Amino acid sequence: MNVLVTGITGFIGSQLASKLVTQGDSVYGLVRHSSERELKRLASIVSSVHFIEGDLVRYHSVLSAVEASDPNIVFHLGALTPVRLSFDDPYPYIGTNFDGTVNLVHSILKQSPNTRLIVASTAEVYGWQPSGQPISEDAMLNPASPYAVSKAAADQYIQMANRIYHLRGTIMRPINSYGRTWESGFYTEYLISKMLKQETCYVGAPDSIRDYMYVEDHVEAYLDVARTEKAVGGIYNVSPGNPVTNAELAKRLSSIVGFKGSVVFGSYPPGYPQRPQSQDPAYLVLDNTAIKREVSWKPRFTLDEGLKKAVELWSSRSL
């Protein structure tokens, strides 16, 4: 099949593209003017991907990409994602995450209306919810950051377009993923990179409860949905169902790494962009019943198995 991937240079996008190339699809990637450094995640498959230069915030740029790739499926993973930075500068998030999604929707409807669109949303759209119960897809959206608002608005637009314009869109709402080897700005990777160096770690919200999903399980969820026609029009939480506190995650990684340094609970790293504490949901755990039942997806990795693989990845590169 012809497959267009937005956000192909990102963490999940690059992993997904590798899988698509391996299974024999013709893969197209929408990229802004990119340096060689930005393409390093795709080094092993760069000769097998058709890159189309463009920008999600420019409608005719997106329309040209859809025309050039003539896709059977579009995986829309392109987004601006650093949650904490969105509080101080929300406008780029609205442009990329909401306007960019609208541009893609109408490009598909105009150029290739039978194309399936699989959209990466986020668990952040749920925001504040009653604590203690996993959140299902029909929960009211209460986004707790400008980033989450931009993604929730995009979700609503997809749902409207499915009904009004007969778009063949599917919304995926994944929980926190880990398994990066290039970035240490995410919680799990931050802890791993610091612990391997035996440096002091900071856990800013030790009692907050989250799910954590290994990258391979995340990517397989997209592929499983793409293979499932009945998933068209659906909304799916993507979560392994392994809730732990941030403090417990730090303790598990400490044991795996053999960390001898100190962990400071209740304080963020010096200079770390602050997320307003009153806005940070203490409990963000997703109910994965729907995707297991309707798509037959299930996680392959337990939390400890995934964390061990992530530590091995970081250990194998120069720190």
Structure description:
By secondary structure, the protein is an alpha/beta fold. The protein has a single domain (2-179, 212-241, 285-301), classed as NAD(P)-binding Rossmann-like Domain (Rossmann fold), CATH 3.40.50. The protein has ten helices and 14 strands. The protein has helices at 11-22, 59-69, 83-86, 91-111, 146-164, 187-196, 215-226, 246-257, 289-295, 303-315; strands spanning 2-6, 26-31, 49-53, 73-76, 116-120, 168-174, 176-178, 201-203, 209-210, 212-214, 235-238, 244-245, 263-265, 283-284. The protein has a seven-stranded parallel beta sheet with strand order 3-2-1-4-5-6-11, with helices on both faces. A three-stranded mixed beta sheet has the order 12-9-14. The chain has a two-stranded parallel sheet with strand order 7-10. α1 (11-22) links the parallel β1 and β2. The model has no long low-confidence stretch (mean pLDDT 92).
Give the arrangement of secondary structure elements:
Blueprint: E1 2-6, H1 11-22, E2 26-31, E3 49-53, H2 59-69, E4 73-76, H3 83-86, H4 91-111, E5 116-120, H5 146-164, E6 168-174, E7 176-178, H6 187-196, E8 201-203, E9 209-210, E10 212-214, H7 215-226, E11 235-238, E12 244-245, H8 246-257, E13 263-265, E14 283-284, H9 289-295, H10 303-315
